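YM 10:42: Hydrolase sequence, as discussed on the call
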Amino acid sequence: MLQWDPPQNFQADMIEAIIFDFDGVIADSEHIALTELNQTFRKFGIELGWDELVSSFLGKSPGDIVRYIEKQSGADPGKEYPQIWNDRVCNRFATDLEVVPGITNLLSHLKDIRIPTCIASGSPVERLDLALRTLGLQEHFINRSFGGDHVERGKPAPDIFQYAADKLGVSSERCVVIEDGLAGTIAARDAGVAVIIGFLGGSHLEGYRQFHGKQLIENGATHLAHSISEITPIINERL
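YM 10:58: structure's back
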């Protein structure tokens, strides 16, 4: 597997912005989305274990998942995916969604030191907005929450990170990306991001962190963090 190396002219003081994935980094929501996705798969006769579900579908675009269902089952998912699946996920957000511990303090710290931040997610913007309101974090990402609706190609294509960096007015090489998914890590690497922090603190990675972390490093992550508190010094060293 390829591992991306930062450009030779990269300097630590070149970091100008922080780009967050959302599910599994800001919101501890991947277990909700993946559990409901597994229920959808079962309706089409597709049985997957949790490890395969995480490694193959964490951060994947809806289009990729539709094509997977069609290939594996020979059926058109119709409204079952993504519409009905997304409705079930949103309904569970109202009762089960929790913030990743420590993220509020990190966002406040970045605001205090005036480092621009944004979200670059494969999720629909409507769902991102709902989740941010539910968690009370919307003020941190006003007009800076970018989702799958904003680009033609989802992760692992680099489009969403290139789009986010452009909206912040910086080069992707001068960004830190915090990402929990394999597809997102590949996307950040291919966007030329200099510092990619593979985040392993989400509850969906319980019992799976060592293997998943190895995958992230092999595909471009420059650092691993098991908690938000481990991210702050990585960022501070590069400002």
